[in-house]
Design goal:
74% of the residues lie in helices and 0% in strands. The protein is mainly alpha-helical. Helix 2 crosses helix 6, helix 9 runs antiparallel to helix 10 and helix 12 packs across helix 13. The model has no long low-confidence stretch (mean pLDDT 91).
Length: 381
């Protein structure tokens, strides 16, 4: 079920909102929203809904364990086990086929490639689960003692399919202490409609043209058509991602929740660094808080900083999909960030803003061509 579908707009959302409105006790309202969220997910993933419930249960258990045990070493062991479990699930479902294909190509063998269907939203709810156990380990939030609250956090339908990635520390108090108001509901409706327009009127329209241009391959259409397709894809991917985020934020407001902003006019950025402060903010902040800073950030010298940036953007590319194009796209952006940190960033600060904007748009544009390429060789055609 997607937000722009008729069944969501005219059946699921009205029934869920009215039901939530009629239930006044918070525990019962949370239970109702949890059940509605599971139904929402099961509509498209009738089997994998149990995987999501299991993920919530496993991380709930590890969180309780980390809070209960004494001694740093034991807490760290439980944290490592929790992260391994989460990454193992993500690895099997998202990357097993990619890994076997590359092993076969590398060693000239023919291992059977597993045909595992990717559960919708697995990257989002897995990262949310990991943020919970890591924050409990760090002492930034208390362990959740109510499993149903944990399940609501993991499964809540507005952000489940396409984000934003909601950190537990940002929503923990809202699970029991949120306030629904007419003003917030009205703002939520407006934000949802704004995102729906982005998705249906713009992103979907661009997508039809882009798919028509690229479906025959780069040699079957003119160069002008390829350039048009690339430009429209750049617009499509922004309006698609940001549209879903707007709808999620709007839906959250309708039910009393406040989610982090996820896009902040990224195509007005004047550097690639600034672009990543504006694009998919919940993802870039997740990698900053849970990968970049723990690796040492920029505190251990230039070489370590560059290494950390490449690791983060390698993982950013992998997060977006199991394919070499995604990995290279991530490393492409990582290299631009290193270049800006070495010397280009200071040069851009001294130049008119239009120069930085032109450089950034050009760099991002060619990055999207790489991101879209089904075959790496197509990037160079």
């Amino acid at each position: 079920m997607v937000f722009s579908s008729a069944i969501f707009l005219f059946t699921f959302l009205p029934l869920t909102f009215i039901g939530s409105l009629l239930i006044r006790q918070r525990w019962a309202q949370n239970a109702f929203l949890t059940l509605a969220s599971l139904i929402f997910y099961a509509f498209g993933e009738p089997v994998y809904v149990f995987l999501m419930i299991a993920s919530a249960g496993v991380n709930y258990g590890f969180g309780r364990g980390i809070a209960a045990v004494r001694g740093k070493r034991m807490k760290r062991l439980l944290l490592v086990l929790a992260v391994i479990c989460d990454l193992a699930v993500l690895g099997v479902f998202k990357y097993a086929g990619f890994a076997v294909t590359n092993v076969n190509a590398l060693f000239g063998i023919a291992l059977p490639v597993p045909a595992i269907r990717l559960p919708v939203g697995i990257s989002f709810f897995t990262f949310q689960a990991m943020s919970y156990v890591i924050d409990v380990y760090r002492g930034e939030v208390p362990a959740q003692h109510n499993f149903w609250h944990m399940l609501l956090y993991i499964s809540f339908f507005p952000q489940l399919i396409a984000g934003p990635i909601v950190k537990y520390r940002d929503i923990a108090a809202q699970i029991t202490g949120r306030k629904e108001t007419i003003r917030k509901f009205a703002a939520g409706i407006m934000r949802f409609c704004w995102g729906l327009g982005k998705k249906v009127l713009l992103a979907n329209s661009f997508a039809r043209v882009v798919d028509e241009i690229f479906k025959y391959g780069p040699y079957a259409v003119s160069r002008k058509a390829l350039w048009l397709g690339a430009i429209l894809y750049m617009m499509q991917i922004y309006y698609d991602f940001s549209g879903y985020s707007d709808m999620a934020i709007g839906l959250g407001k309708m039910f009393g929740f406040e989610f982090q902003e996820n896009f902040n006019y990224p195509y007005v950025a004047t550097s690639v660094k600034n672009f990543w402060h504006r694009w998919h903010i919940s993802l870039s902040s997740w990698f900053r808080d849970y990968v970049y800073i723990p690796l040492g950030g920029n505190r251990k010298g230039a070489a370590c900083t560059y290494r950390n940036l490449l690791i983060v953007f390698f993982l950013t590319g992998m997060w977006h999909g199991a394919g070499m194009a995604f990995i290279l796209w991530g490393l492409y952006h990582g290299l631009f960030l290193i270049l800006e940190r070495v010397w280009l960033g200071k040069k851009l600060e001294k130049l008119p803003g239009i120069v930085g904007w032109g450089y950034t748009v050009t760099a991002v544009f060619f990055g999207w061509i790489l991101f879209r390429a089904e075959n790496i060789s197509l990037f160079f055609t």
